[in-house]
Amino acid sequence: MGEKFTFSIEGAKLSEHKDLAIDDPRRRRLPPLLRKAWLKLNAVFLGRISEVGLTPDQYITLRWLAEKGTPGLTQRELSDWMVSDPNTVASLVRRMEKAGWICRRTRVKDRRAKEVIPTKTGRKLFEKARRRAVVLEEATLSILSQKERAVFLALLEKVASASMDSSGCQK
Q1: What pLDDT does residue 52 have?
Q2: pTM, whole model, 2 decimals?
Q3: CA geometry: angle 119, 61, 156, nearest 5 deg
Q4: 64 and 78 Cβ atoms separated by less than 8 Å
């Protein structure tokens, strides 16, 4: 089967075949690993935040507004941060506005633009859901040491950025 290379992470020895194609089923492959991790994590996440009345998309909307939206984000900025289709985000924003979790107002520095901001109810709902999300993230990453977490997240960010760059997306 050819030569292997071996490396260690926090004492665990890992190996990979040097001469196998990137999509050879005998090696670790990105798409099935990401899919498996995402499907399991998203199912658990959905269960935890649905208890407070949010969907994952509603949660991430409130999260980006809390983290990036001072004073608010336009729908276009929000769709860029969410890496989502603008029409999907427009529909999501309408439903969230109707529920009283966000509101839209004219942007002070550019009167032509509308910005989306969370309401008091939206902020409270987000904080309740965020606590559940943090517990899940801690549990998920608990198998890694602090150093492994930092390396893992940095490498995942690098792969995500490269994927965005190759797809023509902005964020």
Answers
A1: 94
A2: 0.79
A3: 145
A4: yes
